[in-house]
Structure formats: C-alpha cells, structure tokens
Write a structure and sequence with these properties.
Length: about 120
Amino acid sequence: VQLQAFGGGLVQAGGSLRLSCAASGRTYAMGWFRQAPGKEREFVTVITWNSGNILYSGSVKGRFTISRDNAKNTVYLQMNSLKPEDTAVYYCAARIGTAQPMDYMPSPGMYGYWGQGTLVTVSS
C-alpha cells in the first residue's frame, strides 16, 4: 500500500487546515502522527476503516477531526483552532491485517505503511 499525504502549509494560530491521505488499497486502519523538530513522533489520531472507531490524543481532542471516504480510500484530518505547538511534520500511516484493540493503535509499531509527511507550520 502506498500513501500520499497532502494539505500542509503555513497558518496563523487559531486558523484551520485540512490534511488528506490517499491509500492505494484497502486498510484496516489509518492514522496520523506528527513529529516536531527535536521531538519524537507523536500519535495524533486513528480511524478504523470498517467500523469507523476513532481515537484522538488528548492534545488534539476537540480541535481535530478525522474522517474517511471509503470510496476513495482517503482519510482526512480537519485541524481547527491550531496552536503554534501543533507545528510539525504530519505523517499518515496505515495498518493492514488483523484487528487490534484501539488502545494499541497509538503505537507506531501498529502501522506497516507510512506516507511521506507534510509540514504544518502554525505561526503565533
């Protein structure tokens, strides 16, 4: 499976951006991670393809919304009320294969496929 992420850019604090990630095939789940300069990769959110189960990290819950378009094998990340601390390279990731408890899904090891990353910069 190949993943292509789009939609990053520069936005002022309080603004919004929408990221998208298209997969070349069906997946069990697709998620978003982010990595700020000098920091480890951080889980953002995940959605399972069939059941639509969703998990958010505490730092984005209430501001970010993940959704999917089954027909297009595409997942979206609507980011509202952006803060400077949201600045990072955002990566989409996909898991193919067996289902796992949602509690496992924040671990990068759950995903076998990664997109190229798209930079989101939030200015203060």
